[in-house]
Design a protein that fits this description.
four-stranded antiparallel β-sheet, 8 strands, 43% helix, globular
Length: 242
């Protein structure tokens, strides 16, 4: 994990303009809607909803916005029914990209994702063509400035809670869990009063690809920017060594 900390990217996203924050809130809002429809509106009985609420709070989503999203999903039978779809493909220089979406129109989303790849000189592949290059893991990032615990004590706490791995970066700690243990580990940290900069189940590359050609770098940034602008896109995973 060393050298590939997400912490700088997390801070950058949180410091972005209001339009970028709006995109983050849209993404989380859809996750709230899906979690409520799948497991009900009570976080105490819905671990997926608890995890999404924690993610919302880590991204500074106001509590009343969270509550409105839960109530809307629970009480509006005619609310939008989002369907998940995942796309896999190749970016410049043999990079691998996975795109998770939640959409009410799969045709629109598929066309937009394909267009993003094409404009960045990439290509959509078949299901499973690159996902084998990633490991699905729970990942929790802790800001050192927000954590009062000693590194050794924190490591013991997260490992006791069921985490698989703990690494220390210059300005953050990274906790890795099995996907099935993620919710329990995240809740243990929350109950211990440990602030989390981010906490989510993600896809972690087994190996990273370095791009040296300036045009390749411009092209992959083009793909990632276009995907980031699409409200249907929830998460983008890639193995480009930025």
């Amino acid at each position: 994990m060393s050298g590939h900390s997400k912490f700088a990217n997390i801070k950058h996203k949180k410091e972005k303009n209001d339009a970028a924050k709006g995109k983050i809130f849209t993404v989380i809002g859809r996750e709230i809607a899906v979690a409520v429809k799948e497991g009900g509106p009570d976080p105490a009985k819905n671990s997926k909803l608890r995890d999404v609420i924690a993610k919302a709070k880590a991204n500074n989503m106001p509590n009343d916005t969270i509550d409105r999203g839960i109530k809307k999903a629970a009480g509006d039978a005619g609310s939008v029914n989002y369907v998940s779809a995942t796309y896999e493909g190749y970016g410049p220089g043999g990079t691998a990209i996975i795109v998770d979406t939640l959409t009410d129109n799969k045709n629109r989303t598929a066309a937009n994702v394909r267009s993003a790849f094409t404009k960045g000189k990439g290509s959509i592949g078949t299901q499973g063509c690159v996902s084998f290059m990633f490991d699905r893991k729970g990942e929790i990032i802790i800001d050192k400035e927000e954590c009062e615990m000693d590194a050794d004590d924190l490591m013991m706490a997260v490992l006791d809670a069921g985490a698989e791995d703990f690494t220390e970066e210059e300005d953050s700690f990274t906790v890795i869990t099995d996907p099935d243990s993620f919710s329990d580990v995240r809740q243990s940290l929350e109950e211990a009063g440990i602030a989390m900069a981010s906490a989510e189940v993600t896809m972690i590359p087994q190996n990273y690809v370095e791009l040296t050609d300036e045009q390749d770098i411009n092209n992959i940034n083009r793909i990632l920017d276009l995907l980031d602008e699409d409200d249907d896109v929830q998460q983008v995973y890639h193995n480009w060594d930025e």
